[in-house]
Amino acid sequence: MKLELGFIEIKDIQFANECKVENGTLYVNADEALAFVFQDDDVKACVKEAHFDIAKPGESVRITPVKDVIEPRVKVEGPGGEFPGVIAKVDTVGSGKTHVLRGMAVVTAGKIVGFQEGIIDMSGPGADYTPFSKLLNLVLVCVPVEGVHQHEYEHAVRIAGLRAATFIGELGRNVAPDSTKEFETYGIKEGIEKLPGLPRVGYVHMLQSQGLLHDTYVYGVDAKKIISTLINPTETMDGAIISGNCVSACDKNTTYHHQNNPVVADLFEQHGKTINYVCNIITNENVYLADKRRSSDWASKLARMLDLDGVIISEEGFGNPDTDLIMNCVKAEQKGIKTVLVTDEYAGQDGKSQSLADADPLADAVVTGGNANEVIVLPPMDKVIGTLDYVDKIAGGHAGSLRPDGSIEAEIQVITGATNEIGFNKMSAR
After folding, report:
1. pLDDT > 70: what percent of the chain?
2. Which phi and psi (to 5°) does residue 105 adopt?
3. pLDDT-based confidence at 247, cuts 50/70/90?
4. Residue 276 · residue 200 · CB < 8 Å
């Protein structure tokens, strides 16, 4: 399967009468974009009102509470469309040509959906902890209909963000990309013939699926309802997996993370050189022990059936999912498959507590995204997009986190993407 991504570099965003991309600037008619968002019946039923705002790198701006971050894209050639099974029809994506509006994102914010939502600071010390401070952000701020059910509101805000990103992505359909890059994987027999002697490597991609607003969707299907299965890496890059969860902001995989998964990107960089990147195995994170056993059994079974020599395993979240992580590791290692784990740590504010809720001697190659319990003071910002009403309540905050002067004392757990467990951040440890 071969996918070509064409990158259109966005260098500025401005509100205007006409929607277009011209000379690196995205011009947005907010009324037209909102009209497209509100064409969805669930959005109309659950979102009372919404508006767009713009946040640029270096500005004294705080966005909170953040639900999702999405990169606008458009399928210009080949099967499928954006966010298949949710926005586009259920066609297999991951091949053909897709245009990417690089350097920007659509961010959904507003009244809180779940208590594990986050903060993006566009400047100051907090900006160093999130990759989204480096992007031009078109922020969709939503206000719920009074009395709407929490899960209905989550669904509506999720769809609103995806529709906004689809509307913006469409503006890049007829724009010539500034650069292009191809990604290709092979069938099993074809890969062995073309890349003889190279170690066969896969990626076990754990998807958050514990329920209670801890959800991920694959081609529109809630990952709780799947068993471990195979997916082509280019499908992941092409919008097949989207975020629908409100796990702690620091290690949440937003839709942007799935679209730009650095594990996938780094494996592709070595594909055909030092490794044969065979496939991704997607597996869910479950609540009950029997389900954990089933999913980890299937993940390791698939890895063995594919004769993989090694796998990278990443998780999302912490605590309960640590058990899934270690199960996936141990069962693969026991089948002779070498593993490297990517996670983060909840080691206490002093860094002296046990980092994971589970462990095993076979988990001897681990990459950490940092300690989420580290405390930071975020200075006040001149502008807040969204609301500060929930700073004391979100995971990582505490009563009194929001100070009278507008500064925030909290764990870096409150910062969107701070300790991301696919390595989409700058923190680690030696």
Report:
1. 99
2. -155, 155
3. confident
4. yes
* Residue from 57, 47, 55, 173 nearest 110 by CA: 47
Looking at 118-229, list the stretches that DSSP marks H as alpha helix, in order from N- to C-terminal side.
150-170, 188-194
Q: What distance in Å separates the CA atoms of residue 418 and residue 421, rounded to the nearest whole number?
A: 9
Contact present, 73 and 177 (Cβ < 8 Å): no
Q: How far apart are CA 195 and CA 148, in angstroms?
A: 55
| pLDDT, tens digit, 9 for 90 and up, residues 365-401 | 999 999 999 999 999 999 999 999 999 999 999 999 9
Q: Which two tokens stand for residue 182?
A: 């191809």
Q: What is the pLDDT of residue 52?
A: 98
- Is residue 246 flagged as an active site residue? yes
Q: How confident is the model at residue 430 (pLDDT cuts 50, 70, 90)?
A: low
Cβ neighbours for 164, distance < 8 A, ≥ 6 positions apart: 33, 36, 37, 52, 70, 106, 108, 138, 140
Q: Give the integer Cα–Cα distance in Å for 120 and 55.
A: 10
Residue 327, token pair as written in the block: 């199960």
Q: Region 262-282: what's the mean pLDDT? A: 97
Residue reference for tokens 């190659």: 365
Q: Cα–Cα distance between 325 and 328 in angstroms, integer?
A: 5
- pLDDT 10s digits, 308-325: 999 999 999 999 999 999
- Radius of gyration of the chain measured on its C-alpha atoms: 21
Confidence of residue 174 (pLDDT cuts 50, 70, 90): very high
Asked if residue 94 lies in contact with residue 280, where contact means CB atoms within 8 angstroms, the answer is no
Query: How far is residue 270's CA from residue 183's CA, in Å, rounded to a whole number?
Result: 11
CA triplet 235, 317, 126: central angle to 5 degrees? 95
The identity of residue 46, as a single letter, is C
CA–CA separation, 336 and 310 (whole Å): 9
What would the pLDDT profile of 336-370 be if each residue is shown by its tens digit?
999 999 999 999 999 999 999 999 999 999 999 99
pLDDT for residue 429: 66
Residue 208: count of CB within 10 angstroms of its CB: 25
Per DSSP, the three-state class of 304 is helix
Given 19, 46, 142, 246, which residue is catalytic?
246
pTM assigned to the model:
0.96
| Bridging pattern class, strands 96-102 and 2-9 | parallel
Going by C-alpha positions, the residue among 377, 419, 372, 380 that lies closest to residue 401 is 377
DSSP H helices in 306-402: 320-334
Measured from the Cβ of residue 157, the count of other Cβ atoms closer than 10 Å reads 26
